[in-house]
């Protein structure tokens, strides 16, 4: 009997080892896809690699389904199952516009909902935390290297646009903002914020080497510089929101008095801090705009002198020359809602929505321009209709309520740096979803972390509440 139990335990450990290797490999691929030059690789190789990784995740899910079935023990999982069913029905309804892209999208969604989200429950909290710390270190080091290379392209004012395999590749400083080696500064800025959160968490972890702590400190400054030079308004909003939540929660460690006016004071002070940081970002951008003149000589500059200390332009033409503060997002969102009204119950499906729009409302703004929804929450309504967005909305609402209640019950004094840092990462990605189509319908580093961390946070809250009831 003991040998059987030991054998089961050994199998479980070996399976977890394979899962850890898989997670490192999958994250590495996702990080690589953020680099512009990654797309020099023919798309077919990327597709094969991505589908292979998703299928591997499916094998791990099947292991659990035919084993202990832990996946169904996570709170609120039923709403994700119903959402997936609704999304699948939407794909079937509009299969006439094509099936392959929607099938890949469903595979990606299934991996997020049924592999990443339950991961902490399947492997166990302790094993999960070890894996997360490893993933954090990998992300910090790799993203710091990529950001340093990107900042170098700003210093030397490198700029290049070219096409490979039909994909537009942008490198360096484009339209007075820093792309660097990243394919999109908006998504890159969000990950920069997440790595800053990771770095702060590493500094609070016990038994971490001095080397990784020094790297973490350096990384915070490097990512702040990229955030400034990337000029992503989405990134700045996410950064300020994370800063507001962090300062608000931290204020309870300084003074945990429960009083209405003290609460108002906390909010005001947190908002003031955000305002100061906002001006600090603008001031830093102004200072950094002089850096290239120290290294690039004899080139033309804004002062017209061509020599000496001068300021390179950091003003985005798409913002400065447009009266639309949303950079067309309001028109995009309105157009998506108009199309949603024509197929309101099941939506237009994730990958056939644009084809449907061109067929049904060819004069709609996004149909003419070929734009994505640029908002995950509106995209959910657009792609899956009332049925899908209702189930996913209930899931988000219940999960958010449980997290807020957990902090309130603990008087905002949660002394778990892993839990706190992962919660901030979830908040950061959730806020970015208001301006980007991240979180679920595309698989990125942000969506990877969002679902992986969400499952851990909800799982830990459930375990601690169960423990409290049993005492």
Q: Report how far the terminal alpha carbons are from each other.
A: 32 Å
The low-confidence runs, each spanning 5 or more residues with pLDDT under 50, are 298-305
What strand order characterises the main sheet?
Answer: 1-2-3
User: Helical proportion?
Assistant: 55-70%
Shape: globular
Please report which band the strand proportion falls in: under 5%, 5-15%, 15-25%, 25-35%, 35-45% or over 45%: under 5%
The assembly state of the depicted protein chains is: single chain
Radius of gyration: 23 Å
> Secondary-structure element sequence?
HHHHHHEEEHHHHHHHHHHHH
Number of strands: 3
Mean pLDDT, all residues:
86
Count of DSSP-assigned helices: 18
Structural class: mainly alpha
Question: Biggest β-sheet: count, sense, barrel?
Answer: 3 strands, antiparallel
Characterization of the model:
Strands 1-2-3 form a three-stranded antiparallel beta sheet. Helix 7 (about 185-205) runs antiparallel to helix 8 (about 210-230), helix 9 packs across helix 10 and helix 9 runs antiparallel to helix 17. Strand 2 (about 165-175) and strand 3 (about 175-180) form a beta hairpin. About 70% of the residues lie in helices and about 5% in strands. By secondary structure, it is mainly α. The radius of gyration is 23 Å and the shape is globular.
